[in-house]
Design brief:
Elements: H1 2-35, H2 41-44, H3 49-64, H4 71-75, H5 77-114, H6 118-149, H7 152-161, H8 165-175, H9 177-192, E1 200-203, E2 206-213, E3 217-222, E4 227-231, H10 234-237, E5 241-242, E6 250-258, H11 264-277, E7 281-293, E8 298-306, H12 309-330, E9 338-340, E10 354-356
Antiparallel strand pairs: 1-2, 1-5, 2-3, 3-4, 6-8, 7-8, 9-10
Helix pairs in contact: 1-3, 3-5, 5-6, 6-9, 11-12
C-alpha cells in the first residue's frame, strides 16, 4: 500500500499545489488589475500563469521525486533528475521571457497613451520591440548554455576547448559576419531613429509602410498588400526615402496638358473649390501655375497638401478626376487637340492645318464659331 500512496502523494500533491498556487496568483493579478486600471501591467502578467505553474511543478518534483520510493525511479534517478533540471531551466526562461514582454508592453502602452507626437511613439515602439527581441535572445542563449552545463561531459569538453577559445571566436566572427552586421544595423536603426515601425518608405522603387523590424530583417508592406523583406543592413548602406521622418505632412502635384486657350484663372478658382470640398486636404497650401509650354499644348501644375501619404494620394486623384470632368463639360476647348496638315501637293482643303475637336466659344463676331480650314 505504501508503494502506491507515496507516488500518489508526491505527484498528486505537486499537481494540487501547482494548480492552487497558479489560481491564487491569477486571482491576485485580476484584483490588482481591477484596482489599477491605469496600467495594463497586471493584466499582461496573467500570461505568465502557464510557465509559472510549469516552474512550480518542476521545482516540487525535482525536490521530492526520490521520495516516491519506486524501483523505476531508483534505477533511473540520475536521468529523471537531469530531465527535471532541464524542464526547470526551460520553464524559468519561459517565465522570464513572458514577464519581460509584459513589462515592456505595459511601459510602451502607458507612454503611447499620453504621448502626442506620433513620430516619437513609433520610434519608442521600434526601440522597445528590438529591446524585447534582444532580451529574448539573451535569455534563450543563457538557458541553452545552462542546460548544456548540467551534463558533466559538456563541462569537460568546455574546459578542454577553453585554450582555443580565441581562435574559435575569430572563426565564428568571420562565419557570422553578415549576421552580426545585421544585428548591429538593427540596433543602429532602433536607436539612430533612421526608420521606425509605421513609417512610409520608398525602397527599390516600391512604396509601402514599415510593418516589422527584427534584429536581422525588416518587412515593408506595400500599398497592394505585398510584403518586401530585406536585411536591416540595407537601410544603413543604401539611400532610401522616408516620408514620415520629420513629420507625415506631404505636398503633391497634379499635371495637366491642355490647349493654349485653357482658362487658367478659372482653373485656379475651380481647384480651390475642389480642395475646400475635399476631406483629405489639410488646408496648408495650394496653387495652380503654368510650368511649361510646347507648340501645341501647355503644362499646368496643381499643387496640393495633405496630412500624410495616403491622404495626398486621395487628394491628387480627386483633383485630377474632378478637374478633367469640369474641363470636359464646361470648357471642352481647353482639352488638347490633334493638329493635322494636308500632304504637299494634295487637292484637299486649303489652309495650313485642321483641328479635330470642339472649338472654343469666342463670343460674337464673324468666324467666332466656325471651324478653321
Amino acid at each position: 500500500m505504501e508503494d502506491v500512496l507515496r507516488p500518489l502523494v508526491v505527484v498528486g500533491g505537486t499537481i494540487i499545489v501547482t494548480l492552487i498556487l497558479g489560481w491564487l496568483t491569477d486571482r491576485a493579478l485580476c484584483k490588482v488589475d481591477a484596482a489599477r486600471p491605469d496600467t495594463p501591467l497586471w493584466g499582461l502578467l496573467r500570461r505568465c500563469r502557464i510557465p509559472l505553474q510549469l516552474l512550480l511543478a518542476a521545482a516540487l518534483l525535482r525536490g521530492s521525486y526520490d521520495e516516491t520510493d519506486i524501483g523505476l525511479v531508483r534505477d533511473h534517478q540520475a536521468g529523471i533528475g537531469q530531465c527535471l533540471s532541464l524542464v526547470l531551466i526551460a520553464a524559468t526562461a519561459w517565465l522570464a521571457i513572458r514577464a519581460s514582454a509584459a513589462i515592456v508592453e505595459s511601459t510602451y502602452s502607458r507612454y503611447a497613451a499620453v504621448a502626442r507626437d506620433a513620430a516619437r511613439v513609433r520610434r519608442v515602439r521600434t526601440q522597445v520591440t528590438l529591446i524585447q527581441r534582444v532580451v529574448t535572445a539573451v535569455v534563450i542563449v543563457v538557458a541553452a548554455a545552462s542546460m548544456l552545463l548540467t551534463f558533466p561531459e559538456m563541462r569537460t569538453v568546455g574546459q578542454s576547448m577553453l585554450a582555443s577559445a580565441g581562435l574559435l571566436g575569430i572563426v565564428a566572427g568571420i562565419a557570422a559576419q553578415s549576421t552580426l552586421g545585421n544585428l548591429f544595423a538593427g540596433l543602429q536603426i532602433a536607436f539612430g531613429d533612421m526608420v521606425r515601425i509605421g513609417d512610409t518608405v520608398v525602397v527599390e522603387r516600391e512604396w509601402g509602410t514599415v510593418e516589422e523590424i527584427t534584429l536581422t530583417f525588416l518587412t515593408v508592406r506595400t500599398w497592394d498588400e505585398r510584403r518586401i523583406t530585406m536585411p536591416v543592413s540595407y537601410f544603413t548602406n543604401k539611400p532610401f526615402e522616408n516620408w514620415s521622418r520629420g513629420g507625415a505632412q506631404m505636398t503633391g502635384t497634379v499635371f495637366f496638358h491642355l490647349d493654349h486657350a485653357a482658362p487658367v484663372e478659372k482653373m485656379r478658382e475651380k481647384l480651390h473649390e475642389i480642395l475646400q470640398d475635399s476631406a483629405d486636404w489639410d488646408g496648408r497650401a495650394w496653387s495652380l501655375v503654368v510650368t511649361d509650354t510646347t507648340p501645341s499644348t501647355i503644362q499646368v501644375r496643381a499643387l496640393v497638401t495633405a496630412r500624410d501619404s495616403d491622404a495626398i494620394w486621395s487628394v491628387r486623384c480627386e483633383v485630377r478626376e474632378r478637374m478633367i470632368e469640369w474641363l470636359r463639360t464646361e470648357h471642352p476647348y481647353a482639352l488638347p487637340r490633334i493638329a493635322t496638315a494636308p500632304a504637299p501637293g494634295s487637292s484637299g482643303e486649303s489652309g495650313p492645318y485642321l483641328y479635330e475637336g470642339p472649338e472654343p466659344d469666342r463670343g460674337p463676331g464673324p468666324g467666332s464659331r466656325g471651324a478653321r480650314s
